[in-house]
Amino acid sequence: MNKKKATPSPVNEAEYGEILRQAISQIRTARLSMAQQVNASIQSVYWNLGKLLSEKQLAEGYGSGVVKQLSVDLKSEFPDMGLSPRNLWDMKRFYERYYQADVKLRQAVAVLPWGHNLLLINKLNNESEIAFYTNEVLTKGWSRDLLLNAIKMDSYGQAQKQTKTHNFDQTLPTVHADYANEVFKSTYNLGFLGITEPLKELELENRLIAKIRSFILELGRGFSFIGNQYRLEYNGKEYFVDMLFFHRGLRSLVAIELKIGSFKAEYVGKMNLYLSLLDRLEKSANENPSIGIILCADKDHLDVEIALQDINKPIGVAEYQLLLPKAELQTLVLNELKATD
């Protein structure tokens, strides 16, 4: 007697969404890993050449003839490697800049593209600053142009001034909380939207959806967009999350609520409810607790602190900037003018 083959059960929309998220995550992780392996191999060669030139105590001036001849001979052997005299001197500078640096910093710059490394050693001297920007490039996938703009805007200095406004340390396991601290910022620059006049919250949301790639880049590496006005139904009632993401590193759903005005304490209660619903209805067994971010035009950290005091869900409050602040814009323009004198 022939047995009937079991008919595969149809995959519902939520299950498919999870399959798609995991597939995208696998591909992106593999691509990033391959790119970093390539960069590390190139930097290893450049590091060793720089070390050779440094140990031979060659200096620009009396050593120029040696380096020029070395460049000619190396290029004839390896024509596709960019071994010009200028590049060889840069390799020497690269080695001398980092050979006594912290091991973690050396490991981080080793996987950056060469152009990013040249920018860092040309623009910065402070190791803490270099470590900050290196981490930003690696976690957010910044291009060289974005790195240059961040340095000119003194993103490092701004980050040191920011007060963390979240309860991650109280609501998440230590390792998970530390990672969340690194992932989420206190301020997000939405200048890419080109907004010059007041908007309604839904219009701001629609603008972000239209430029979702730019928004994800501003959020940082690891975010996958799931949807906007994401519908949750419970006990015969409907609830809608402004924007829902998944962060593959944190293994958490991330709900973002957009607010046009200043922070209000009642926003926390609403977000707490959304996170409870997400954990109950959407979170998979192998995922970490959902995280909420309230993105508003302005916040007072004392107001945020008291509003989060007895909340047991991980929630952060962040500001957004629609335009570059006037003072920063003036400084940026003046520096550009000085650079072209």
Automatic annotation (TrEMBL):
A matching Pfam family: DUF1016_N
Domain YhcG N-terminal residue range list: 25-156
Gene3D superfamilies according to UniProt: 3.40.1350.10
Record GO terms (molecular function): endonuclease activity; nucleic acid binding
Transmembrane feature ranges: none
Domain YhcG PDDEXK nuclease: 182-330
Segments forming a coiled coil: none
Extent of the signal sequence: none
Annotated keywords: Endonuclease, Hydrolase, Nuclease
Name of this protein: Putative nuclease of restriction endonuclease-like (RecB) superfamily
Organism: Rhabdobacter roseus
